[in-house]
Write a structure and sequence with these properties.
229 residues; alpha+beta; 3-stranded antiparallel sheet
Length: 229
Amino acid sequence: MEELNTQNPDEISLKEIIQKLRSARSYIASKWLTILFGGLLGGLLGLAYAYIKKPVYTATSTFVLEDNKSGGLSQYAGLASLAGINIGGSGAGGVFQGDNILELYKSRTMIEQALLSPVVINGHSNLLINLYINYNHLQEKWQKDQKAARVSFNENSKNFTRAQDSIITDIVKTINDKILTVTKPDKKLNIIQVDVVSKNELFSKIFNDRLVQTVNNFYAQTKTKKSYQ
């Protein structure tokens, strides 16, 4: 009586599996130099990227603006409260309404005041703008320009020279283009987020704090002036 073949053609026998494993091992053994070279090359490329690619540091401030539905500046009283100032009442002030507050953060006046604020670094008093200049090695880049090479900023500076003013203008533009982001993550909510991203951890942290503080102070001063009018 003829014996029926019940083996499924799609099934693989143990013998075939062993043969395939042996073939794979033989192939890998024949290509071990290529595999080793590829692994070493990948490792070297990874190390080179890690060395060349410098880390960036992000400092973020997020806060809620109070909205008392009373109009005017009252909805922005939260700004002053961040500085420990309790301001009541209402007043006029279009600069603090809508998305104008976002542009205020990015204005030259606010950024310049934050940059020219004094800081203590390694026990020495200095201006924040000098920290920015140092970690970006700008003095080295200015060596070709005699006027720029002699520029320095100190706490006694009152009136800026044309060279100083030009440098501040360039720094403010760079900060707005590459470092500072001010947004309202949710258009329906009165939440403002200020992000500072730079290659220097200390600068990111201090500049974020000083910029928020500068805008708070400006708001408080504006509100105080309005209350006397």
